[in-house]
Design brief:
Distance between the termini: 47 Å
Largest sheet: 6 strands, mixed
Oligomer: single chain
CATH class: Alpha Beta
Radius of gyration: 20 Å
Shape: globular
Order of helices and strands: HEHHEHEEEEEHEHEEHEEEEHEHHHE
Strand order of the largest sheet: 3-2-4-9-16-15
Strand content: 25-35%
CATH architecture: 3-Layer(aba) Sandwich
Helix content: 25-40%
Number of strands: 16
Number of helices: 11
CATH topology: Rossmann fold
Length: 328
Amino acid sequence: MTPVADLLHEEIRATGPISFRRFMDLALYHPNHGYYTRGEDPFGREGDFYTNSQLQPVFGRFIAQQIARWRDEMGLPEEFTVVELGAGRGETLEEVGKALPSVRCLAVERMEGALPQGFQGVVYSNEFFDALPVHLVERSADGLAEWLVDSRNDGFRWIERGCPAEPIVAEYVDKYAAGLAEGDRIEVNLKALDQLEHIAGALHHGYILTIDYGYSTEEIAAGRRFPQGSLMAYARHQAREDVLSEPGSRDITAHVNFTALEQRGEELGLQSLGLRTQAQFLFALGEADNFAAIIEGATEAETLQLRMQLKSLLFGMGETFRVLVQKK
């Protein structure tokens, strides 16, 4: 049994079944034993998964290219800050720093209080919002009910439709997933809206670039996508639907509701510049010079490697990830 599992069992024995948001928060972010805080590297061949950020230097050069264009549009301000949320190893931010040595680069993991106030620049994230703790709810004939987590021997079990959803959770579904069909489940990511509000409050002028797994409200209406929800665990490069096993030892994700980010952003004064696939976003960046800037200065051997990275970003991951740009 993992240390986080011991802590969860103790809490459930003391207080009763808990929300999945609480379960996921401890599993991923417990200060000493959480998946992202325990000090082990989850990325790459020896880890549990790959992300865009491991396809370097190509991915970092793309991000730097886009940031440079936005900086130009803003009139090349002297003080310009790039913040990466959930930077991990920091590979992307390192490439941005190489390409734009005059800008200030900040890596922020858990964001509370960590952003500079009133700054100009860009807030960038890759697979940040999908790892924030979520509630799991289901639409039933009697209304919206939340699934809870209980102890079972040495493991954990779901309590189906354990209790009526809290008003704030029900309000989220009514607002951002109104077409949820009876019997369908959805993850409610209140934390994502809180984080977006924090970003909007700190950013005076600039852009928010969000790259993640996700969907729009229209895509999930009437059970079109993820009728049983999108929760998934990842360990040793295998995706697993059982998200309750071995908490603290594996990643847990939920697809991002981009409609919620767009609509909440508009309420916070952020202009949405559209939701696209990663392939569409990267093609728009590279089509002017046929991606020449991405491989500029490379040797023949390096060029082959860079082209392989480019192919993976455009085609291997290009339709999997979505890109949302918001402007303030």
